[in-house]
Amino acid sequence: MSSVVRLLSSMVGEVCSIIEINNERRSKLRRGLQFIKREMEQVVSLMEDKNKECRGAVQETRIQQLQEFVYDFEDFVETLRDPPPYSKLLLVAMKMDPRTEQLKSIEHFKETISSLGQYFLKQSTESSQGQDPDQGAMSDPDEDADEEQLQSIGGPRSEIVELLKPSPGEEQKLRVISIVGCRGVGKTALARAVRNKYSSSDEFDCVAWVVASGCNKKKALLDKILESVLEDLARRAPDAENAPKEKSEGASTTKPNLQDILSQKRCLVFVDDVQQALVWKDTVDACRKNGSRSRIVVTTSVHSVATACSSGSYVYRMQFLSDDDSKSLFWRKVYGSETADPPDALVTGSESIFSKCGGLPRALTSVAKHLNMKGDTLESTHCIDVGQYLGKDYLLGTNNAESVFKEMRRTLMHCYDSLPDYDHRSCMLYLGIFPKGHQIKSKSLVRRLVAEGLVVDAASKCFEELIDRCIVEPVQICNNSVVAKRCQVHGVMLEYIVHKSVAKNVVTLIKGHEPVLKAASTEARTRRLSVQSSIKGRFDELDKHKAALRSLTMFKTEPTDLKMCKMLRILDLEGCHGVNQEGFLEGLSELLLLKYLNLRNTRINKLPTKVKKLQRLETLDIRDTDVKILPLDVIMLPKLAYLFGKFQLPEVPTKGKEAEKFYEFLKETSSLHTLAGFVTNKRQSPEHVILLARNLKKVKVWCNDTPADAPTWLLPDHPELASSSAAASDGPSARSQDYNCPWNKTEERLNNMDYIKLLKMRVTPLESVSITSSTICNEFLCSLEGPCTISSIKLRGILNCLPHSNKLRELGRIKKMQLFSTGLTIEDLSVLQFLRGLEYLKLVEHTDRFCDGALVVEKNGFESLKSLCIDAPKVPEMQFKEGSMRSLTSLYLLCPNSQKPSGVIDGISHLAKLSEVILHSSMQRAWEAVAKGHPNRPCVKRQPEPTANT
């Protein structure tokens, strides 16, 4: 017995000791996590102090280190969520407690965050004292291109000259012409060509040139312009009239007033490289606009600045050189001869150069000057070498490339360094994921950025800024949003972004059979991987890095096993084959941290029920797949906000606890915002989702056009909605069976009154509706009543008629309307001018009947419309009366079969704010003359040709 007692006593002592060790480790782990949390909050507060913001190479390196720290720490915290397979006490006793290693990791994290915190604290202190610890910031470079960079400069110069001329019957008024385009495209060269034309002529009393770079203070640019104007006046007529006048003997001299000079004389002023709209506003506000025949020509690489300078009119957008002009300029610079005729070997070897330069004059000139230095030893291998290593070795300057690339590097570096903050620069580098020529879907990119946490609150604004600064080029321009629907990165800019993002370990790239492009540091973890047109096995080359992957994007590559990629947040397999192979989709269900999953165009035909394990999934895209029926488990994912496809929603139980649980989930838990879209009919009706999902704002639906099949649940909200909303949100008392929900009926289908009753119970009305169905479209339009909360309507199907004008006047909240193949004529559609709040209208028809009659817009018609798009075989007759379309800025005429415009459009001059006209690529040049005859001289563009990547 004594032996048993001693044994038991020893065991109790050991257990007590184990409990003490367990409590001590748990306490240390908690304290360590809390310490790191406090340190990170302090660092963030220092970084967000905008008044003490400081830039430079060291600053950016520290932010990059901080980001890597956050990624590592986030992955570490995720491992803490998983409970150990056995009792913690047992693991302690067996000396297998994972917290031993966890505490070591905590200590490492504490040291790292403390070090970073000390840096940001020091930086904040030095910045507040006026010191700049980082000397890496760049000033705006002057775009010192010469005229020879533009082989086809004659055409653009003639257009600017035409914009300088007064319009017929125009009163004397100061006019500002803006030349906008990406850096290196030749804006300055064009402006100089125009200046040279007038520098010695008598058409202007003064021709002045000013560089706006560095003029960030109020009136600094104004003083600079005045000084240049006075200098040129003195050069042309050195008399007393233009000299500064003295107030009195012994008093200080006073300079003439700029607005008086511009009003009394006809001056031509060039202001190069304006980058801030505020700087320009301070300048132009000081100039009298009326009573002046002077002209100001502004060059800028920022669209919003060009619009602000010219008030939306007289904006000339620079284009990249055509293939022929690019080759002519390039070989002229290579050989230094106007009659350059390169051998076939060089032509073949230089193909990648033209592909990457993409018609950018500065890039072509830089490469050509580099090859010119080879002299008679120039061979095709030299061209191939430059084309292959243009981004890394020459544009980033990692191999001490010749000085001929200096200006090109400065141009590209300025695009990056001049961005407002680290969020914008991260967004720019993120574009390195996408291959050349890929059309980036703007909204998808924004959702990716948010899911990764790179840009949390302003992802859309960051992308807008990249477009505004000509870093990203819009492709699909027929859209009334600030961000174009599809965009792409220009060739040489993409080269720079790819190698910059790789150098900073933002992206790792596997492309075809080329070597893996990854950060030079051997300690750098691969966070984002882009696999482009490669074979399946290449992905396995990064086995040791898979555990840290947060984002995986594959283009034209068959995916492989992803079971090691436990930390994936983003998985984009759009267009990949082999996704439907056995077991692959089930394996994706084990990636528990996934937030964004794109399976578009992957030929899958079914989603596994295991998808319910993806509790953090926010975006699921299964468009262009063979998935016909969506599992109920997908709808019940708690974080799912964006669901895309073309599927039937699943059958839902009508009674019992399972039904109650589902309806309660939709009302209280569901995050679903966009459901686009599903196929519906009476037998497969989605009213349980449409009417109860509280956060649902956007719906897209297809339906059979058989009258017996068409549901009528898509009706706008009614005034009774407010009074019924309280009853629908009172918790258990508002469950489906308690308010006699019509879908509890098991023997009869829903009728119209049941749907209307359900609709009145919706707490949050829809904002955007897209319908493909003639029957539903007609019933939907007939049911519209004001006030209507729906702001966006897209209808595709034959319409009998449109609501009466009096009814349309009440629907003031509809801002965007798109009508496809309605069968109505342009005259029938003219009633839409009574929609007071309508800002964007797109009409797409493919029959000649559409042009029957004429669109006559009366005074005050379409009073809020900003963009009108007509996509039809030919332009219909249109008449704009005085006082109509007072807000219209963009007119899209995408009509390939249109003949001469005479007599088709009447009163276009009445569109007071018209600033751009977009034409179909095949429309005759005579249509451009219609736009140029407008007093505003709106910018004329042509819709880009569609590409294979849609």
TrEMBL record:
GO BP, sorted A to Z: defense response; response to other organism
Keyword Transferase: no
Ranges where the Disease resistance R13L4/SHOC-2-like LRR domain occurs: 549-646
InterPro entries tied to this protein: Disease_R_plants, LRR_dom_sf, LRR_R13L4/SHOC2-like, NB-ARC, P-loop_NTPase, WH-like_DNA-bd_sf, WHD_DRP
Domain Disease resistance protein winged helix: 433-495
Keywords from the UniProt entry: Plant defense, Repeat
Record's compositionally biased regions (Acidic residues): 140-149
Positions of transmembrane segments: none
Annotated region (Disordered), positions in chain: 124-158
Domain NB-ARC: 170-336
Keyword Cytoplasm: no
PANTHER family per UniProt: DISEASE RESISTANCE PROTEIN RP, OS11G0462500 PROTEIN
Entry protein name: NB-ARC domain-containing protein
Annotated source species: Urochloa decumbens
